[in-house]
């Protein structure tokens, strides 16, 4: 299996690359600047400049794109650019999502981001990531999977080797916590890359 990781220089991207390499997968890092991940293969190119010719040989493309709150609308435009160039193709697109778009009621009318105590500082990023999922749901021409992490997404958290797979609704572990490390999230991401069980679905993961 050939996997490309867009944004491989980021904290999540590097751990996803590392996890994929640990399973002897063929990994290429796609980065805007010099490759700093463990991948031996790399393509230095801005996401918005990517064309299908750049991605055609990969079975799975993992979008680990990240940006500052000031540029938060790029979560939408970057994802739609990838969808446009992968439209009608067999390549799968996996996306690091956000927890703000998870539903908090069975009717799926309220999201985490809608809570009155949701921090204002996180709203630009969470709001635009939620909108990007709304746009993604309209795309039946792309083999996408959107994976939301837990509310507490810990960059320096330990790799326990375990995670809980959930769906569209906000869930917690036995301790009442919604938390997962980047390293454990990377395991879930590569599991989905290998298995492909949730095409055109949003799933979520949290730690035990």
TrEMBL record:
Residue ranges that the Swiss-Prot or TrEMBL entry lists as coiled coil: none
InterPro entries per record: NAD(P)-bd_dom, NAD(P)-bd_dom_sf, Polyketide_Oxido-like
GO molecular function per UniProt: oxidoreductase activity, acting on the CH-NH group of donors, NAD or NADP as acceptor
Top-rank taxon, per record: Bacteria
CDD domains to which the protein is assigned, alphabetical: BVR-B_like_SDR_a
Pfam assignment, any one: NAD_binding_10
Domain NAD(P)-binding: 7-191
Record's protein name: NAD(P)-binding domain-containing protein
């Amino acid at each position: 299996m050939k996997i490309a990781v867009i944004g491989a220089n980021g904290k999540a991207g590097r751990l996803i690359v590392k996890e994929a390499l640990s399973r002897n997968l063929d990994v290429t890092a796609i980065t805007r600047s010099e490759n700093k991940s463990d991948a031996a293969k790399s393509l230095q190119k801005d996401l918005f400049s990517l064309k299908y010719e750049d991605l055609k040989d990969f079975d799975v493309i993992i979008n680990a794109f990240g940006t500052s709150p000031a540029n938060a609308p790029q979560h939408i435009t970057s994802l739609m650019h990838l969808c446009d160039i992968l439209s009608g193709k067999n390549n799968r697109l996996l996306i690091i999502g956000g927890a703000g778009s998870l539903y908090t009621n069975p009717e799926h009318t309220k999201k985490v981001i809608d809570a009155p105590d949701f921090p204002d500082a996180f709203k630009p990023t969470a709001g635009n990531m939620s909108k990007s999922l709304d746009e993604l749901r309209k795309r039946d021409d792309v083999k996408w999977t959107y994976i939301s992490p837990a509310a507490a997404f810990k960059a320096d958290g330990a790799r326990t080797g375990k995670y809980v797979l959930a769906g569209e609704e906000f869930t917690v572990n036995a301790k009442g916590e919604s938390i997962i490390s980047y390293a454990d999230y990377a395991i879930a991401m590569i599991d989905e890359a290998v298995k492909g069980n949730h095409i055109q679905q949003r799933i979520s993961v949290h730690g035990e």
